[in-house]
Amino acid sequence: MKAPILAPGSRAGAQVMEKAVKGRSLWDDARRRLFRNWAAVTGMVVLVVLVVVALIGPHLVPFSYDQINKNDVWAPPLTGGHLLGADSLGRDLLARLLMGLRVSLAIGLVATVVSLVIGVLWGAIAGYVGGALDELMMRVVDVLYSLPFIFFVILMMVTFGSNIILIFVAIGAVEWLTMSRIVRGQTLGLKHKEFVEAARAAGLNQGSIITKHIIPNLLGPVVVYVTLTIPAVILAESFLSFLGLGVQPPMASLGSLIANGAQDMELAPWLLIFPSLVMIVTLMSFNFIGDGLRDAIDPQDR
Amino acid sequence: MLRFIGRRLLVAIPTLFLVVTVAFFMMRAAPGSPFDSDRKLAPEIERNVMAKYGMDKPIGEQYFNYIKGVVQGDFGPSLKYQDKSVLEILQENYKVSLVLGLSAILIASIVGVTLGVLAALRQNGLIDYGVMGVAILGVCIPTFVTAPLLVLLFGSQLQILPSGGWNGGALANLILPVTVLALPQIAIISRLTRAGMIEVLRSNYVRTARAKGLPEHRIVAKHALRAAILPLVSYLGPACAGLLTGSLVVEKIFNLPGLGKFFVISALQRDYTVVMGMVIFYAALILVLNLIADLLYAVLDPRVRLS
């Protein structure tokens, strides 16, 4: 480890001094660091715009995402009232893109929540109870880690057909492993802290200690990992849609739009380029926020 | 060391067993059968076909027979490609995927380590920001976006590279798919190298080397690099998993006759035995690679004790 150097003019030094005067909480500090990070702030602004656009956008476009317009087949951008052009069935690309963005964001959110719930509970229980149970539960995670997961997701999609709820569950069930490892590590550190002992001495049962004292205190790393899981999930769904196993037409997701665009890219490159751009911007904003949060909450873990 | 390998292999066996079991029952739970076709088979014929492949027996017995075969190295016949065993199909198709994967990881390592070292040596300089910007793009732009965009640019617009096909593994046909596969890996490897290098360059023994008056390039090449790329070794396992996933997309877009393309087709056609064979093959591959990575790590870093 490097010895921390607190030069009077350095950021860390200044923060230590301010803290002595005003008494900021750790979360206040993290927030200040986060908002000083221009990449993370840009990411947050872009993300808010994307979410708002995905929520209200489809209602503002004069076309619906599945509306077929025979006269507008392959319409290039800015023609026939189609801002971003139209596809092989004359469906408005902007309308489909907004819908696809909404679907992708929704899948990212829901599947992440699934992975969050499983991962946090699994990791917290393993870490807190310890002993043979911990050994067993973490061995299960190790085993699952070494599986070629994308193949299982593909098998699941083939087996049960591709409906959207199953996509949520399948991807969420895959993504919880890392979460459970992070949470277990944190729990191991927390469980010998005084406040947990106090809770135990006060006669609280194990379930309540885990839910009331352990889980709220390991939020930091979990929040960071969540912001990195959402883009991973969006990517996984798009990957499935790209292979034709995800969202089924006429519904759209960013991945299925890119897949369709790739098929027709020589005739109508806009069908590939616009969805790709939206995808890249979405993933980048999540990654910037995640990196910024990590630097803000845990400055040592660079 | 031997004990460590032995223990890891002991854990690998139940893992593989689990893979086989889950994949077997999932495949069988799927609606549809490998013998579905446009033309409906007469019931007697269907019964005969089912009997030929032992699929008329109760599912438990089928499972037991399958496991028995796998233990003896027999993955059964393909249900879709007549007169071909699963092993034959794997043998015929693995080469394309292997060439793609190996070239991608090789190029990614060389380019990624070089970029990472350059960035670390000029920390917070122009090169550093450039490399890290590229790295973020590489992580955020998925293969199924880069692949069609590169085909559009170099294949259709500039027409300097073929936009697909294998052509016996000609160099021109390899450039685009390997680039697509390597890009995300370059991004991750350069980030890991940069982080490792920055840490190592601050360590005491590098300071000693500087104090001895060694030229900077010797310090970097002989002293720092070896320690800095250690984290890469443990990235080997995940990298290969990433390549496998990427090869599914790349083989589809560039229309390459490899395992990845075959896997998706076989899964959709309910070719149970082929899909199972491939899942087992990939799982074993990842297990072996992870084991090799751990061993390499211990060999390269004397501080790590295997236990």
Could you explain how this protein is built, in words?
The complex is a heterodimer of chains A (302) and B (307). Chain A is an all-alpha fold and 302 residues long. Helix content of chain A is 73%, strand content 0%. Chain A contains 12 helices and no strands. In chain A, helix 4 packs across helix 10 (219-242) and helix 7 packs antiparallel against helix 10 (219-242). Chain A is elongated. Mean pLDDT of chain A is 79; it is low at 1-10. Chain B is 76% helix and 0% strand. Chain B has 12 helices and no strands. Chains A and B meet through helix 5, helix 6, helix 10, helix 11 and helix 12 of A and helix 1, helix 5, helix 6, helix 10 and helix 11 of B.
Short description:
By secondary structure, chain A is mostly helical.
The strand count of chain B comes to 0
Derived from helix and strand composition plus strand pairing, the structural class of chain B reads mainly alpha
Name given to the CATH architecture of the largest domain in chain B = Orthogonal Bundle
How many domains, in number, for the residues of chain B? 2
**Secondary-structure element series of chain A:** HHHHHHHHHHHH
Separation of the first and last Cα atoms of chain B: 8 Å
Low-confidence stretches of chain B: none
Q: What is the averaged pLDDT score of chain B?
A: 81
Helix-residue proportion of chain B: over 70%
What is the overall shape of chain B?
A: flat
Q: List the total number of helices of chain A.
A: 12
The total of helices of chain B stands at: 12
**CATH-derived topology of the largest domain in chain B:** MetI-like fold
Shape of chain A: elongated
Largest sheet, strands/sense/barrel of chain B: none
Largest interface: A-B, 42 and 49 residues
Computed structural class of chain A: mainly alpha
